[in-house]
Design a protein that fits this description.
The protein has seven helices and no strands. With 146 residues, it is mainly alpha-helical. The protein is flat and about 50 Å long.
Amino acid sequence: MTVDAHSPGLRAAWQLTRPFELGCFALCVGQAVYLAASFVQGLWLADPSGAPIATDFVNMWAAGRQALEGQPAAVYDVALHKAAEVAAVGHDFDGEYPWIYPPTFLFVAVSLALLPHVFDHEGVDESKDANEWHGWAVSETCCTDG
C-alpha cells in the first residue's frame, strides 16, 4: 500500500516549482565550476608542484587510520594527531586540523580510512613527473568506472 492510497492529495502538495528546480541546477553548476577552477589553480587535491594539499579531509582520514592502528584516543592528542596528518599528506603544513568530534564519529572516520588516500606516498615512482602523478591520481580515484 502506498502513501497515495492513504492521502491522495499529499503528492500534489510536494511538486517542485520550476524556479526551485532551476535554483538547484544553478547550485550544482556553481559547485562544478568551483571544483574545476580549484583543480586548475592547484587548490583542490594538489598544489601546482604536485604535492598534496592538507585540507580538513586529512583530519578525518588520519583519525580513521589512528583508530584502525589501535590508537583511537590519540586523535584527541593534538601533537599525535598532527603527526598522523603530516604522515597522510607526506609533508609538514601550517596549522592543524584538530579532532573535535565525539568518539562515536570515529566509526565514520574508520569507514573513510578503509578507502585509499588520494596520494599513496610510498607508491609514487620517484621518476614520475609531479604533474603526471597528479593527473593519474585524480583520474584513478575520481574518473574510473566500477
